[in-house]
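EI: anyone free to look at a 383-residue chain?
SC: sure, send it
EI:
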Amino acid sequence: MAGHQHTDDSGAAPPVLLTPGPLTTSERTRRAATVDWGSWDRRFNDLTASVRHRLAAASGAARPVLCVPMQGSGTFAVEAAVRTLVAPGDRLVVAVNGTYGARIADMATRAGRRAVVVEASTDVPVPVDAVADAFEQHPDARHLAVVHCETSTGLLNPVEDLADVAHQMGRALIVDAMSSFGVLDTAIDHPAVHAVVAASGKCLEGLPGMGFVLVPPDVLDAAAGRCDSLSLDLVDQHRYMERTGQWRYTPPTHVVAALHEALLQYEEEGGAPVRLDRYRANRGALDAGMAALGFRHYLHESLRTPIIQTFHSPDHPSWSFPTFYELVKQRGFVLYPGKLTTEETFRVGCIERSRPPSSPRRSAPSSRLWTQWASPSLFHRAD
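SC: here you go
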């Protein structure tokens, strides 16, 4: 497989993950995860501190921000941000145009926060005017939660415009930047942005298993005592780390070590602009190959990101996505199995490290890498 020399126990090269996390990682990152660490050992404390510092730097923030890591997937960190910054019983406006926005509304409701949903179709951004109207109708709603890159489709929501409206109205934003952090501008320096949430297994190209929240110090201090969850309290997590250097509860040691190595590679590569160029090259190759095969994009070009692309399923009587998925997998690639839109679609991630075997030193893959899925059996006939 292009760009992948490691093998599994059977001797076969593992597939390339064309999903936006977990994603195909480097040999250095995987190797870092093979070392065992004592969770209270001084060396691991130093490693954690380095990861926190490097994540704050990777955010591109010019103003001071604290990085509070959390055990678990990115969803754990999003819920930690909601339950820490929004007090029990308070209203939270939630912009929803996909599964992950809807998840925030669900977690807020389950946590006893009153969610006010501003909903849009999965193929358009959440209207800024509709968010302003929701704030007007609910003056007691102090926060807006929005998914920056809605992974359901790859659509980019206008966080800067939403932050402007929130600031004008004296409100604040919680930005779920799970699929955009490290390559796209999350508006972290905007005064209305009170939290940017992301995770280890996306554009930073680490292993999944650690979320984190970036928050200005004064915002975190003001949130003391709000959280009604023991394990999801960002203030307690931060204060304990500052006092002891340790995590409050057992940390994902191997994931932290792998993320540290991934961050070193992120910096060596050139950070956000260079990684973004690589992902754009991946997307360009994917777009060219898929167009040649006759697939159509779900989103308008202006709304697409170089993170994940969503395609319409072919209008063909013999089309079967499960069969297509297996055929692609047989050729060494793993897609997202399933759709998150009302229309028949499927998604392909662009945040991976593969290079074509013919030119291993090139930074961009060719469209041939992506379209080697294609075969005469692309459409499965029942007979």
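EI: Residues 16-20+271-371 form a domain with the Aspartate Aminotransferase, domain 1 fold (CATH 3.90.1150.10).
SC: 👍
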